[in-house]
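The following record pairs a protein chain with its ligand, flavin-adenine dinucleotide.
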Amino acid sequence: MSAAAEIAVIGGGIGGLATAAFLHRAGLRSTVYEQARELKEVGAGLMAAPNLTRLLRELDALPANAVPLDIGWEFRRWQDGTVLSSEDLRESCRTLYGERTYTLHRADLLAALAAAVPAGTVRLGKRCVSVEVGSRVTLRFEDGSLAEADVVIGADGVHSTVRAALGEPAAPTYSGTCAFRALVPASSAPSLALRPAQTLWIGPGHHLVHYPLSGGRWVNLVAVVPAVGHATESWSATATVEEFLSEFEGWDERLRDLIRASGTPGRWALLDRAPLKRWSHGPVTLLGDAAHPMLPFFGQGAAQSVEDAAVLARCLASASSFTGPEEALRRYEELRRPRTTRLQEASHGRGHVNHLPDGPEQESRDLAFAAGDSLRDNGWIYGYDASRV
Ligand code: FAD
């Protein structure tokens, strides 16, 4: 594709900025239109498995204060913290996949990605309200301004305007669960939560994950619980510590101590969506949560948006003037959609397994966890190198 082509990216989240960064590395220019007046992310963490880490390293965008999970993953029983399974990630991750697993603060990741795009790429306060395809694509913004582009990439998240403009509604179904999240200062957290481990506590109808963040300054806490009537899919909705604690009645006191330190936790309804049948229409395509929103049970949503970005940039860079960008977008979708569909479906099924009530099914699940090796078993997720597909 010609370096003079105008590529517009709608949305300056993790996926949109990663797209601009990979396009830049491929010698293509883009403009990112972000609705917010500043680049910002919610105060929360992300787990970055090898499939994400290797791409961030390629962009020189792995935040310096990312915490390597030296101890690894640990599954614990809700009542007393019995370790059901553990996985040492220090050596095995590198041996199997050539990379490590880290935890990142979302804001640090966004800043690192922003530093990987040329100055002037991001235009803030630009909320896209319509996308019209003619000889070029015309974008209309809420402030009344217009822009034209040859290719448009909708990286505008789960409530995507671009997806709606393409006539691809992703009708949500309520998953019946919601997530609490909080950052706890390390000084207020029990020592168990300060270890470089991602600890997953599982129990009837609930689970909770915690890990240290930002060089160990914080502990990130995400819990998934049953929900009735909390249908707001937004991190700006909050709850109280008492509400959070009441969900974990009778759980291990170390976990309850961590929840007691959680300040004003956020609460986010988890909505589920079936995979889309297509992402691209002519010169317009979708990326990240706009294309494939998924429940967070594999911690892969952001990773998939960065993988999309790497593959899309390569497809566009290798598009010839003869076949044009539409063929490149088709190729991108062909390469990416089977994988993200599989992850959407796997994430959909995972909640049930994590939330089994105590009984024979739970006992055989725990035995399977103890005997299993999720790092190897999920090699299709962690071993994928988006720079080489
Ligand atoms: P977003 O981050 O939603 O960014 C979209 C951007 O577009 C925003 O900046 C928004 O302001 C902008 N925008 C929206 N509409 C418009 C418009 N009309 N015009 C202009 N701009 C617009 N993923 C992981 O990889 N690891 C994890 O550990 C992990 N944990 C998670 C835990 C929870 C509880 C949840 C809910 C998700 C988790 N995820 C995780 C998933 C991850 O957060 C998302 O998949 C990821 O943020 C998607 O990035 P995105 O850039 O596609 O969308």
